[in-house]
């Protein structure tokens, strides 16, 4: 009974903060912006916000004069990134120190890949400086080998699918890649495009086609009629190429495909378009770096070129679009699917 009461009370309180935040943002964005830029929680070394090395129970390592906030992850990787963005936004507006969880494997990698720390993917020191707050990871707070179970509450997610999303504007755009991961992704991209060592990395456009479990969005429509054909993606790529040419004077002829599609004949069609992709099996990426890295490298490539074409309803495509537009000032499109002609325009 006590556990249920604590959980529901936590949801109510945090839910109230969410509703209040959205209301304030809608009617008085300027004051809120000032609050976010003048946080009273300074960005000194995160280690000073714990009492010492990781402990058996997290409560034994937290300071009595500091408030904290954390979250759980239980979805695909991009949704987990968005959840952490929501967590950081709440940390800003409630003036609490965020404790970031590890990314957990999902879908086919459950039981195969190990959890990976946030800082192995993203640049935490830069993020802390940009947000002007300290950022902790659970590895700094609680011993990863501890068998002690600690009770916590829960909270709800924000939306990311609007260009005025406060979570993206104040947090998400500051979650930049770990520089080691960026370099690794560029090396993979250069080999995929056949770029000689003596030449710079050319401008490229990345495409993300999501299939796999997205058949649920097709309902009664056969998959062959539901999925947007490659010709539709090619039309979107041509639009992005033209926009990049008009806007920046850059001819982006290289196109890199990223997709969860497993049909060899489909990939053969991609090749017929003159596009390329990273062959992770040939690269031995999983064997060299771990099961997370094909996914992570795809995500970096989707945000590192001059243009991006993604799949509607995919959070991976949505966040890639935001990164492309804000980080690269690039051109981006999302391709609709669901029935024949869904993306006609």
Summarize the helices and strands and which ones pair or pack.
Layout: H1 2-27, H2 29-37, E1 68-70, H3 77-94, E2 97-100, H4 124-131, E3 136-137, H5 138-141, H6 166-170, H7 179-193, E4 204-209, H8 223-226, H9 230-248, E5 254-259, H10 264-272, E6 276-277, H11 280-283, H12 285-289, H13 293-302, E7 307-311, H14 315-327, E8 331-335
Parallel strand pairs: 1-2, 2-3, 4-5, 4-7, 5-6, 7-8
Helix pairs in contact: 7-13
Task: Please tell me how large the radius of gyration is.
Answer: 22 Å
Q: Into which percent range does the helicity of residues fall?
A: 40-55%
The outline comes out as: globular
Cα(first) to Cα(last) distance is: 55 Å
Helix and strand element order: HHEHEHEHHHEHHEHEHHHEHE
Largest sheet: 5 strands, parallel
Helix-and-strand structural type: alpha/beta
Mean pLDDT over all positions: 85
Flag low-confidence runs: 1-33
Proportion of beta-strand residues: 5-15%
Give the helix tally. Answer: 14
The main sheet orders its strands as: 6-5-4-7-8
- The strand count comes to 8
Please provide a written account of the structure.
By secondary structure, this protein is α/β, with parallel strands linked by helices. The chain is 43% helix and 10% strand. The protein has 14 helices and eight strands. The strands form two sheets. A five-stranded parallel beta sheet has the order 6-5-4-7-8, sandwiched between helices. α7 crosses α13. The longest helix has 26 residues, at 2-27. Residues 1-33 have low confidence and may be disordered.
Question: Brief overview, please?
Answer:
The protein has 14 helices and 8 strands. With 345 residues, the chain is an alpha/beta fold.
């Amino acid at each position: 009974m006590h556990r249920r009461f604590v959980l529901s009370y936590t949801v109510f309180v945090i839910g109230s903060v969410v509703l209040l935040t959205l209301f304030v943002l809608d009617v008085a964005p300027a004051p809120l912006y000032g609050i976010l830029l003048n946080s009273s929680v300074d960005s000194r070394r995160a280690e000073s916000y714990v009492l010492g090395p990781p402990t058996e129970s997290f409560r034994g390592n937290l300071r009595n004069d500091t408030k904290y906030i954390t979250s759980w992850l239980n979805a695909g990787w991009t949704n987990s990134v968005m959840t952490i963005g929501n967590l950081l936004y709440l940390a800003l507006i409630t003036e609490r120190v965020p404790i970031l969880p590890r990314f957990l494997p999902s879908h086919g990698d459950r039981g195969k890949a190990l959890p990976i720390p946030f800082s192995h993917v993203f640049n935490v020191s830069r993020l802390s400086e940009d947000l002007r707050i300290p950022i902790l990871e659970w590895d700094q707070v609680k011993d990863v080998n501890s068998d002690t179970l600690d009770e916590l509450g829960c909270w709800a997610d924000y939306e990311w699918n609007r260009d005025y999303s406060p979570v993206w504007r104040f947090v998400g755009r500051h979650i930049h890649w770990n520089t080691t991961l960026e370099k690794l992704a560029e090396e993979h991209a250069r080999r995929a495009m056949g770029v000689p060592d003596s030449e710079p990395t050319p401008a490229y456009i990345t495409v993300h086609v999501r299939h796999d479990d997205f058949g649920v969005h097709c309902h009664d429509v056969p998959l062959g009629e539901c999925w947007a054909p490659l010709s539709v993606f090619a039309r979107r790529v041509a639009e992005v190429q033209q926009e990049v040419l008009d806007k920046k004077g850059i001819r982006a002829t290289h196109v890199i495909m990223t997709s969860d599609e497993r049909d060899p004949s489909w990939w053969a069609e991609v090749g017929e378009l003159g596009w390329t992709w990273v062959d992770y099996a040939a690269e031995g990426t999983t064997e060299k770096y771990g099961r997370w890295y094909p996914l992570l490298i795809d995500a970096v490539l989707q945000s590192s070129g001059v243009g991006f074409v993604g799949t509607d309803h995919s959070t991976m495509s949505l966040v890639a679009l935001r990164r492309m537009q804000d980080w690269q000032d690039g051109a981006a499109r999302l391709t609709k699917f669901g029935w024949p002609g869904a993306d006609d325009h």
